[in-house]
Write a sequence for this structure.
């Protein structure tokens, strides 16, 4: 959530920065300005009425001392007191609407973010690795997986519907190996603390990270009286670990990693990436989350992105880093780097991680603060998050990049200790 005082005091600047994101001003900023003006006017009326009430109460006290008849003053005070209570209720109602409006305004892009309208305007920052030259036509992962007997979409569809999958045998073991490899790397070499969080969270947690109220259609909600949702990413529970807390600035940055299944309805995405594992309703991911000071946050974004890239480098998978433009960033992001892995069957790069600095946007919604040196006035932390990595998409990249002419798949050396020393997946 944006700081309402900042929006009020820098309205034109905020409008310009939101315009660069393609935001409809009439749907967010115009209502904010109207409600904010109403709030200030009502507060002024309340304060005037309270001042008059105090003055009248003083007159009553003086009149009583002098033996005067103050019954009319007392009656007027009673009426005015009721009016003040009604005015305060009106102010509270406006403040609630103002808060609801702020919750629907996206974050402001950082000054280093290129202005653009779509993914076509994203900027390539760097590439790593060389795409393998095949002496045969590479197959897509869904053909490889089905031929090897490790990937089954038909049975998953029968039990759960479209956009679900079953991994079997060596495929299931490869998924588990990737999870363990990523967690070991991030905890032992990158300094993250491993967390096993709940896979169900409440409405407040999702509001804190910016998934609610705007994106409820993308979530799976538990039926019945439970006001709980399946997590769309471990970013939600990890960020909410410190909800309503004041952290000691001397402990920052705090770094967490977690493996979780993730659940997304993918509302509005039907027709895109319908084949294979690219866009599933349920998928595995290892997430990275940081809490930092404002001064550290963009350096920490670079470090977090490098942590995610290191996974691909150790697996020998070519990738590129993209700096997203203003029109392609997520709702809560101030700056985002996408990491895209090379997929031979599509002859292109596809997103495998999105690493973002939300600055104080999430912290303000979740009320997460810190004190410099553990003392002084608390201020909001900056929060960062990124996939380290999306496990299913990493599995896709391994199948496609390490496939052989005979249909087998070589296992990257870094994964073999997690696969019991196995070097290849072959058809049994």
């Amino acid at each position: 959530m944006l700081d309402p005082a900042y929006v009020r005091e820098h309205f034109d600047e905020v409008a310009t920065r939101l315009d660069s994101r393609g935001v409809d001003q009439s749907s967010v900023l115009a209502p904010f300005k109207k409600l904010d003006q109403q709030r200030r006017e009502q507060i002024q009326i309340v304060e005037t009425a309270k001042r008059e009430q105090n003055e009248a109460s003083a007159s009553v006290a003086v009149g009583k001392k002098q033996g005067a008849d103050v019954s009319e003053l007392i009656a007027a005070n009673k009426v005015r007191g009721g009016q003040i209570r009604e005015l305060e209720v009106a102010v509270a109602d406006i403040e609630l609407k103002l808060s609801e409006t702020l919750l629907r305004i996206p974050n402001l892009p950082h000054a280093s973010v290129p202005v653009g309208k779509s993914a076509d305007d994203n900027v390539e920052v760097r590439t790593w690795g060389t795409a393998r030259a095949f002496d045969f036509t590479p197959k897509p992962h869904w053909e490889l997986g089905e031929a090897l007997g490790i990937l089954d979409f038909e049975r998953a569809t029968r039990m759960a519907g479209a956009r679900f999958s079953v991994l079997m045998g060596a495929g299931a073991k490869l998924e588990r190996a990737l999870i363990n490899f990523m967690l070991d790397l991030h905890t032992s070499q990158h300094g993250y603390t491993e967390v096993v969080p709940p896979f169900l969270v409440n409405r407040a947690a999702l509001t804190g990270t910016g998934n609610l109220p705007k994106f409820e259609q993308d979530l799976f909600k538990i039926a019945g009286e439970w006001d709980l949702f399946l997590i769309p990413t471990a970013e939600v529970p990890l960020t909410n670990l410190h909800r309503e807390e004041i952290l000691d600035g001397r402990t920052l940055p705090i770094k967490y990693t977690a493996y979780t299944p993730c659940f997304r309805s993918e509302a509005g995405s039907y027709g895109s990436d319908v084949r294979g594992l690219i866009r599933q309703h349920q998928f595995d991911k290892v997430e990275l989350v940081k809490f930092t000071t404002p001064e550290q946050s963009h350096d920490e974004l670079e470090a977090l992105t490098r942590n995610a890239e290191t996974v691909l480098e150790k697996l020998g998978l070519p990738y590129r880093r993209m700096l997203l433009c203003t029109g392609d960033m997520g709702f809560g992001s101030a700056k985002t780097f996408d990491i895209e892995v090379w997929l031979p069957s599509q002859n292109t790069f596809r997103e495998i991680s999105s690493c973002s600095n939300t600055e104080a946007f999430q912290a303000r919604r979740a009320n997460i603060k810190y004190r410099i040196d553990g003392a002084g006035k608390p201020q909001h932390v900056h929060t960062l998050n990124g996939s380290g990595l999306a496990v299913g998409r990493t599995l896709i990249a391994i199948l496609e990049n390490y496939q052989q002419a005979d249909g087998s798949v070589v296992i990257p050396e870094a994964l073999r200790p997690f696969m019991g020393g196995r070097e290849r997946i072959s058809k049994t």
